[in-house]
From TrEMBL:
The keyword Cell membrane applies. It is found in: Cell membrane. Coiled coil: none annotated. It comes from the Bacteria. This is Cytochrome C oxidase. Its main location: membrane. It comes from Roseovarius atlanticus.
Amino acid sequence: MRLAGISALALLAGLYLPPWEAWAGPFPAHMLRHMGLVAGVAPLMMLAWPGLARRFAVPVMLAAVVEFAIVWAWHLPQLHGFAQLSLGGRVLEQLAFLAAGLAVWSGALHARQPLVGAGGLFLTSMHMTLLGALLVLAPGDLYAEICGRAPDLSGQQLGGILMLAIGTPVYLVGALVLAARVIREETA
């Protein structure tokens, strides 16, 4: 548990201290932080502090639906532009992502029925996959105009690939671990 807490804090520092925008561009930096929060920091925090996880736990399917709404809303051009162009918007966006991630992971890890927890993580994996694929396959930069910058389709595609490469497998592996736990308990 201590290692998970140290890892969560180290990951937070790694997400916000380096100048990711300068290295990767604005959209890949946004996506790296987004996925780092929901698929890295949130589950590590829930594993490190299980008491907090139990207190924070909400029904996992409710958490998954709320997380879906938060993630998709912040990827609409207007809200994404608000977050990119204002410090207050960026902080609000990042806090919303972290809260959503904490809700999903605490709900999944403390679900009365572990298969329901697995289902919530699997549902989240599916919508992360869909959003990542839409970002990769979009015919143009969805955010350049509203953010007042030059179009950067390759940056958007890299951001979508990061979503696919981080979010999809982390949530899927979490779902499979919970499902395997049920199978082990039933065969024991």
